[in-house]
Structure formats: C-alpha cells, structure tokens
Specification:
337 residues; alpha/beta; TIM Barrel; six-stranded mixed sheet; 12 helices
Length: 337
C-alpha cells in the first residue's frame, strides 16, 4: 500500500514573523526542489498550503520507506540560504500508511488525528508521527475509555493515594503527595499514565483536579487519618489553560488556602542520573544541579521525586535538594479515616 507524507515547517509562524511570508514560500519551494531531486518518476508532490508539502513516494517495501523517511528528513533539515539569510528547517512530518484506501479528506483527517493523539518520534530537529493500521483501534479504545471516565466521579470510581515526602537530611516525613487512581468495573485498574491524557483531551481534567484538591484538603485536615504536614498535587498544564492560570487557577489556590512554594524535579530527570551499571550521566547531573541552583536563587524549596536508590539520594543531597519522594522512602497508599 502507498504511503503519504505531510511535511510541514514546524516553526512557520516564528519564521514568518521574523522574515516575512515571501521567505516562508521560498523555504517551501526549496524543500519541494530537494524532494523532487530525491524521488522516482512516479512520485507525486503537492503544495498543500503555504507551509506544507504533501508527498506520495513511490515506495512499497517497509524497509525502503523507513530508509527514505530518515534520509529525506536529514536532507531537508540541512541549512539553506535564501536572500542572504541562513535557515535550518524545523520540520514536522506526518506519515499515513495504506493511503490508497481512503479519500483525500479522510487522509487529512487522519493526519490531523495523528498529530493530536500520537507522541512524535524525534530525528534531529524533525518530529515524525505515524498513522498505521493499529491507530484506529487505539482511537476507538480511547473514546470508549473517555465515555467511562465521564461518570467515574459520580460512580465513586476515583480515589486518592498518598505518598510520603521526606526531609532530605533526616528522612522524617514532612508531608504527602496526593495521587489520583481509577478502578473501573469493566477496565479494572487503569494507570494514571493512560487515563490522565484521556482526561486532558476530553476536558474532564479540570473537574477531576478540583475534586482532587477538595478531597486531599479534607483528608489532610482530618485528625483521624494520622497524616501530618503539607500536601502537594500535580496540576495538568491543560487544566491551567482551561481555568486561565492567571485568574481562575489563582483564585482556586487562594480559596483552597494552598500556598505553592516548591519546585519538583520530575522522576524522569532522577532516573537518568545513573546508568544500569551505576555510572553517573554528567549531562543529566548538570541539568538537575542547575534546577536546584535556580530554585535556591529564587528562594523556592525543591523536591526530587522518583528516588529509588541511596546512590540517587546521596547525589541529590549533595546538590542541596531539600525534600525527597520515591519508593526508597515509601510507596503511595490509601488512607482510612
């Protein structure tokens, strides 16, 4: 089955703002020229709009296609000079397999769906998203999950678990993070990594986050739970947009008497500090050390999450990190009042 590739200038708006529409059109023309030079006689190339090209390379073998994608994106990303300006294109490429079985309108719909729902692969400065035969099944599954998630609060399927936050130096518990969990009779226990993105896509995240704040606030202030200290929560960037972070979300914090006063180092940074054989990754370590330095310069506390080894804890303590969270100090658990 043929493949269609939509090749877009990812930073077109910034380029247009800086150099003008004529420059953007010149970049598209130069990209088209490069593509034609790398294509067979039966390849089809169209200018989709003033920032995008639509191409159907005459390749059917999956290995050849993959080689074409990688070599072509590398070629297109090379610096070009137009009217004395040197520019290195930042591209977003969307690939659709089995493109001959759908109409042009359906093709564009699939491309747009892929851009919204699939995590891109990055090759250099180019991002690549792919629509294949499994993607529609994933979309249908996500839609079914969204339907179930809409009534989860009313059915009492959402609950909170609390993971301890400890002082980095004496390891005493200073507070807890409230984490959302979902158990559905049909789906079973659903990972937050799965249902949180669905909640963001459907707009349910705002209601769920507000429920989380209210529930955690009451739990932490109930003496019967035995929980003491501060509590923290994760706020979705999507929720910030939905509530207008500068007004509505600020009001939410004020009415909840919550004082955001700490920066968190995400577990993804912590887990990259050491390789499997225990060697320190200097780049990851520099990033983390810089984050700690910046927090201290701003007078803000700093918490590192995802700590699973004494080796990680020792390094973060050396950098001056004040609070720790992770399996090394306690797993998330439900609270019974």
């Amino acid at each position: 089955m043929p493949m269609v590739a939509l090749i877009q200038i990812a930073d077109a708006d910034n380029v247009r703002l800086r150099y003008g529409n004529g420059f953007v059109r010149g970049v598209v023309a130069r990209l088209a020229q490069t593509l034609l030079g790398r294509s067979g006689p039966t390849c089809k190339l169209f200018v989709y709009n003033d920032t995008s090209l639509l191409m159907a390379p005459d390749l059917t073998d999956p290995v050849e296609r993959e080689g074409w994608v990688r070599s072509t994106t590398a070629e297109l990303s090379r610096a070009i000079e137009i009217d004395g300006v040197t520019y290195s294109p930042h591209l977003a490429v969307s690939l659709v397999e089995e493109a001959n079985v759908i109409s042009g309108q359906a093709l564009i719909a699939r491309i747009e769906t892929t851009l919204r729902h699939r995590m891109p692969e990055r090759i250099g400065t180019t991002t690549i998203t792919r629509y294949d035969s499994t993607f529609e099944q994933e979309i249908h599954a996500r839609l079914a999950m969204a339907d179930l998630l809409r009534g989860a609060l009313e059915r009492g399927e959402l609950r909170l678990v609390y993971q301890p936050i400890v002082d980095a130096f004496d390891e005493t518990v200073s507070g807890y993070e409230a984490l959302m969990r979902w158990h559905n009779p049909t789906l079973g226990e659903v990972s937050p990594a799965v249902f949180i993105p669905v909640a963001e896509e459907t707009g349910l995240i705002a209601e769920m986050t507000e429920w989380l704040i209210r529930t955690a606030w009451h739990t932490m202030n109930d003496p019967a739970t035995g929980l003491q200290g501060n509590f923290s929560i994760n706020i979705s960037p999507v929720h910030m947009e939905q509530t207008d972070f500068l007004s509505g979300f600020t009001t939410l914090l004020e009415t909840s008497a919550i004082d955001p006063h700490r920066i968190k180092i995400d577990r993804s940074f912590v887990m990259n500090l050491y390789s499997e054989d225990g060697k320190l990754d200097s780049r990851a370590a520099t990033i983390v050390e810089t984050m700690v330095f910046m927090a201290k310069a701003l007078g803000i506390g700093i918490l590192a999450e995802g700590i699973e080894s004494q080796q990680e804890a020792a390094l973060l303590r050396e950098y001056g990190c004040e609070s720790f969270q992770g399996y090394l100090f306690g797993r998330p658990a439900e609270v019974v009042s």
